[in-house]
Design brief:
Layout lengths: L4 E7 L13 H7 L2 H7 L3 E7 L17 H18 L4 E6 L4 H16 L3 E6 L20 H5 L20 E6 L4 H8 L4 E4 H7 L2 H13 L3 E7 L21 H14 L2 E7 L10 H13 L14
Parallel strand pairs: 1-2, 1-3, 3-8, 4-5, 4-7, 5-6, 7-8
């Protein structure tokens, strides 16, 4: 196994939705032993601490888009940090709600463009997050990052997207909660979508392997965005957007092990962990174990966990 420099970047973003708690996510990952788990695999771990949003105007309490200006501040900070962090190693963005990916992915895309390589994104999520601020019925910006970093219009005031990720370079796995507006838009896009019915019928490995083969053939860089709600809430309850029927522990570990085998992962998000909703840290520990699998831990190497 090739040892890497892993950069832990805390992004306590809690502006993407009204339900509070994701700001505690970065420290929950640290408490659950993320740094230690990666160090035990032989990686160098550098913890860069927690970020803060760039200065921004106050948000209007009853605005149709919730905490828009704060999320703009987070996007500015994360895009800049993501771009520079790529020169140092493999950044792991510890969230924080999924609106953080507007910044992390756009920053990584800027880095990839400078290197002359295409960026691919693996989106492991129950949702497509393909709304724009105008199409979102809730006004919650954690449902919009994919629309932002693919360059869709409607993000007035946000940093310009200089290197939008091509839709055909995005693969979504685990979908099972998509509203009609998103459904119509995603069906008209070139994004590869694999919902849980398709996974049930054909397994989770074939679509992932096909996507990874395309990344390798293009000499691409691969950003993985792992949302807690990709997992079934029976095994990962610490998320404010629980949707039954998610990935099992084994399916999720298989995805991560295949990602490691590919050697293609260059950056990762761990998002939507709300420790306030967890059960004795079980979700945080599972997410740490999945990150470790993506970075080289094998099935025989997994520690036994006790929740008592």
């Amino acid at each position: 196994m090739t040892h890497k420099t892993c950069l832990l970047i805390g992004a306590p973003v809690d502006s993407g939705k009204r339900r509070r708690g994701c700001l505690m996510g970065p420290d929950a990952y640290r408490t659950a032993g993320l740094g230690q788990s990666l160090s035990e695999l032989g990686h160098q771990v550098i913890d860069l601490g927690n970020l803060a949003p760039a200065p921004h105007d106050p948000d209007t309490t009853n605005a149709p888009v919730y905490a828009r200006n704060e999320t703009i501040g987070w996007t500015q900070t994360l895009a800049a940090v993501a771009d520079t962090a790529m020169d140092r190693g493999v950044p792991l963005f510890l969230g924080g709600d999924h609106s953080l990916s507007a910044g992390s992915v756009s920053g990584v895309a800027n880095h990839a463009a400078r290197k002359g390589r295409p960026l691919f994104v693996l989106w492991l999520d129950a949702h497509t997050d393909f709304h724009t601020p105008a199409s979102s019925g809730s006004g919650h910006l954690h449902g919009t990052p994919v629309a932002y970093f693919t360059g869709r219009p409607g993000f007035d005031g946000f940093p310009p997207v200089h290197n939008p990720v091509p839709e055909e370079n995005i693969c979504m796995i685990g979908l099972r909660s998509v509203d009609q507006a998103e459904h119509d838009t995603i069906q008209a896009s070139a994004i590869r979508c694999h919902d849980m019915r398709r996974i049930d019928e054909h397994g989770i490995a074939p679509p992932l392997n096909a996507f990874l083969a395309d990344v390798a053939a293009a000499n691409g860089m691969l950003h993985v965005s792992l949302d807690v709600d990709f997992l079934d809430p029976a095994v990962a309850p610490a998320v404010g957007t629980t949707v039954p029927g998610g990935a099992t522990v084994r399916e999720a570990h298989l995805v991560m092990e295949l990602l490691h085998d590919s050697g293609l992962v260059t950056s990762m998000d761990l998002v939507e962990l709300n420790p306030f909703l967890d059960e004795r840290g079980r979700t945080a520990k599972l997410m740490v174990d999945l990150a470790a699998s993506a970075l080289g831990r094998r099935v025989f190497d997994r520690p036994t966990r006790s929740f008592t």
